[in-house]
Amino acid sequence: MTSIDFYISESTDASIRELLACRLSEKACQTNAATYIHTQTEQHSQQLDKLLWDFKEHSFIPHKLYNHEDAKKHPHPVLIGHDVEPEKNVDLLINLDNKIPDFYSRFERMIEIVSNDDEQRKLSRQHYKFYKDRGYIINTHNIK
Which of 1, 4, 35, 3 is nearest to 127 (CA)? Predict the structure, then answer.
């Protein structure tokens, strides 16, 4: 069964969810966990792609915007996509979309990142209830 984790930030910074996704992706790479970051739109995916290059000065996270053909030829530890389910087995799903992806249960672990924004908190409560109603064990991590 998929392990569900909520990372809840006290920050009101508009980019905190993306920054936390970068940090969590970096940690996943260190443990060789293949990661898929699910975003809302193509623009959001491109923004995250750029941020993964820049978020930490002396760090490199091998990543790529996901498409089926490239993923087969040149696998990367971190894939970013917005409207597609990855074909290959991926260990970790980081959800930055406001909706729960239909394919979340394929992953060993799923992370929802929540900022200190009223709308974001409301959505996360709905997601939490969705997982809880289906019997998932949910872990929460408060980030200061």
Answer: 4
pLDDT tens sequence for the chain (144 residues): 999 999 999 998 889 999 999 999 999 999 999 999 999 999 999 999 999 988 777 777 888 898 655 545 546 789 999 988 887 778 999 999 999 999 999 999 999 999 999 999 999 999 999 999 999 999 999 998
- Residue 11, exposed/middle/buried by CB under 10 A (0-12, 13-18, 19+)? middle
- Token pair for residue 10? 């006290």
CA angle 29, 35, 37 (to 5 degrees): 125
**Token pair for residue 34?**
């293949």
In total, the chain counts a number of residues equal to 144
- Residue 115 carries which side chain, given as an amino acid letter? S
Place of tokens 């709905």: 126
Q: How is domain 3-143 classified at the architecture level of CATH?
A: 3-Layer(aba) Sandwich (3.40)
Q: Residue ranges per domain, the chain?
A: 3-143
Q: Whole-structure pTM over 0.90, yes or no?
A: yes
Strands 3-9 and 109-114: parallel
